[in-house]
Amino acid sequence: MNSTEKIQRSTLPEIKVIPVICSWCNTLCDLKKSEVSNGGKITASFGICPKCEKKVKKKICA
Ligand SMILES: [Zn+2]
C-alpha cells in the first residue's frame, strides 16, 4: 500500500507550456498549458490557426 503512494508522488505531472502548431500551414498558432509527466518530453501539439480554420470552413460550405 505504501509503495503505490511513493510512485504517485514521484510521477506528479508538471504543468508546462507547449507549442501548438497549425497542421495546415505549419506555423506556431498557439501555446497551451499541458500536464507533462515528470521527466517526460514536451511534444508540440497540432491544431489549426484561425486563418486556416476560415479556409477549411469555406471549403466545407462551398
Ligand atoms: Zn494555419
The portion of residues assigned to helices is 25-40%
Instruction: Give the number of helices.
Output: 2
Label the overall shape.
elongated
H/E series, N to C?
Answer: HEEEH
- The total number of structural domains is 1
Tell me about this structure:
This protein is α+β, with helices and mostly antiparallel strands and 62 residues long. The chain has one domain (2-61). The chain is 34% helix and 34% strand. A three-stranded mixed beta sheet has the order 2-1-3, with no helix packed on it. It is elongated. The model has no long low-confidence stretch (mean pLDDT 85). It binds zinc ion. The site of zinc ion has 8 residues, from helix 2.
Give descriptors for this structure.
34% helix, 34% strand, binds zinc ion, alpha+beta, elongated, 2 helices, 62 residues, 3 strands
Concise summary:
This protein has helices at residues 2-10, 50-61, and strands at residues 14-22, 28-36, 45-47. It is an alpha+beta fold. It has a three-stranded mixed sheet with strand order 2-1-3, with no helix packed on it.
Q: How are the elements arranged and paired?
A:
Layout (H helix, E strand, L loop, with lengths): L1 H9 L3 E9 L5 E9 L8 E3 L2 H12 L1
Parallel strand pairs: 1-3
Antiparallel strand pairs: 1-2
The structure holds zinc ion.
Zinc ion binds next to helix 2.
